[in-house]
Design a protein that fits this description.
Transferase(Phosphotransferase), domain 1; 441 residues; 13 helices; three-stranded antiparallel β-sheet; Phosphorylase Kinase, domain 1; four-stranded antiparallel β-sheet; alpha+beta
Length: 441
């Protein structure tokens, strides 16, 4: 684009930076318009984290821009930086862009090369050459890039810009997330984000800021800045995939309520579908199915509406939905639901182990029945007679750990399709009830 010189402003008596268009670029009318565009965009802004503009003009055919001199270097010369320093730099960028957005200016090219860090540690955002100003009183030429022209830097541009989508404030949120990633890794922000062992709590923030859909990103630069404040308080080196013990207890309690609700629904269903002998006077209209008279006073029903069991199940489901909603709201308020889909869910292992134990207990019972070790009332009792109850209890525990896994997957935005142990464990646990159902046909 051009060259920047260190100079002394004779009237102001201060050192400044003077930016000139290079001769080969100056002949291009679009380049000159972009240069003027940067001056006008900077003139709208006055913030300690944005390079100030003092003057703009053309002298002897040379377009020039007089700006604040930052005695330092751009952030690309510093990478990779320590997590705390990266957070400090990005927070300053967030404050600068928040001010710019309040004035309708979208930077569109946030990257380490456009972030200056002075020797004193001051952070300044520069290069507003492709910024877009959203102001109704401006001309279309001032507000829009030419049709079909993609302006920005690969890796730091939001996906919708590459698809020639509309320019919004969410584009700067994406670029700032990419900036944080580049500062931490020292590499271009392309491809899958690996594990940030030096600052795992920043992973979900980067993933959310760089979400493919603009609606899934932070709603504003202030919200992104607040998220950085929160992780700074919690500690950058702690792992967000591992909840604190008290938070873990809340998740386990909600999963227990959900499992109880599932158990209540199954209990109501089994009770309603089990044949039962009732007094004819106890039958209510439209509540029974498959009736057969036994004698003058009794009738057998194949299925019926068990009011107590069904209402209990509905109450249990309502309670489960309520506590789940409260838990997810708590996650959102405490910023514990950030995306972190890279690591596997340890809860899936428990589901697999329970599936193996459930199938083994069923196999042991079948083996014991075939050999006559499970004795009925006429022959006395045996400890193995309790295996059916033990198997049912294992199924309920398996439901609990499955729901626990689903809650954790929701919190970390990890697809359950990436959990083969979960599906294998569920498959093994379902073999006994399916086999028993087939045997009863």
């Amino acid at each position: 684009m051009g060259s920047v010189f260190r100079a002394k402003h004779l009237k102001l008596g201060r050192e400044v930076a003077v930016k000139f268009l290079s001769p080969e670029v100056a002949v291009d009318a679009d380049a000159r318009a972009r240069f003027e565009h940067e001056a006008r965009a900077l003139a709208l802004l006055d913030h300690p984290n944005i390079v100030r503009v003092y003057d703009f003009g053309v002298e002897e055919g040379e377009s020039y821009l007089v700006m604040e001199l930052v005695d330092g270097q751009d952030a690309s010369k510093l990478v990779p930086v320590a997590p705390a320093e990266a957070v400090r730099i990005v927070k300053a960028v967030c404050q600068a862009l928040s001010n710019a957005h309040q004035h309708g200016v979208i930077h569109r090219d946030i990257k380490p090369q456009n972030v200056m860090v002075s020797r004193a540690g001051e952070v300044k955002v520069t290069d507003f050459g492709i910024a877009r100003v959203i102001r109704p009183d401006d001309s279309q030429a001032w507000r829009k890039t030419a049709a079909g022209v993609v302006a920005g830097t690969a890796g730091f541009m939001a996906p919708e810009l590459l698809a020639d989508g509309p320019v919004t404030f969410a584009d700067d949120v994406y670029s700032t997330g990419a900036l944080l990633r580049a500062l931490l890794t020292g590499a271009a922000p392309v491809g899958e984000l690996g594990t940030l062992s030096q600052a795992p709590r920043l992973e979900p923030i980067i993933r959310k800021a760089m979400a493919e859909q603009a609606s899934a990103r932070f709603a504003s630069m202030n919200e992104l800045s607040d998220a950085l404040d929160d992780v700074s308080l919690l500690g950058l080196t702690t792992n967000p995939a591992v909840l604190p013990p008290d938070e873990r207890l809340w998740v386990q309690a909600v999963a227990f309520v959900q499992a109880a609700a599932v158990g209540a629904v199954f209990w109501a269903g089994l009770l309603s579908l089990t044949p039962r002998v009732l007094l004819k006077n106890d039958l209510l209209p439209m509540t029974v199915f498959g009736t057969r008279n036994i004698d003058a006073e009794h009738v057998m029903t194949k299925a019926r509406f068990e009011a107590g069991a069904v209402l209990s199940a509905l109450i249990a489901v309502a309670a489960a939905m309520s506590v789940t909603a409260l838990l997810r709201r708590h996650w959102r308020l405490e910023r514990l639901d950030g995306p972190n889909p890279s690591g596997p869910l340890i809860e899936s292992r428990y589901v697999l182990r329970l599936g193996v134990i459930t199938l083994a207990s069923y196999g042991l019972r079948v083996w014991a029945v075939d050999r006559g070790y499970v004795m009925g009332s006429a022959q006395g009792t045996s400890a193995l007679s309790f295996l059916p109850f033990f198997g049912g209890l294992l199924l309920l525990i398996g439901v609990y750990f499955t729901l626990l896994t689903m809650l954790e997957a929701t919190r970390r935005q990890r697809s359950l399709l990436r959990e083969p142990k979960l599906w294998l464990g569920q498959g093994l646990a379902l073999i006994p009830p399916i086999a028993e159902f087939i045997r009863t046909l």
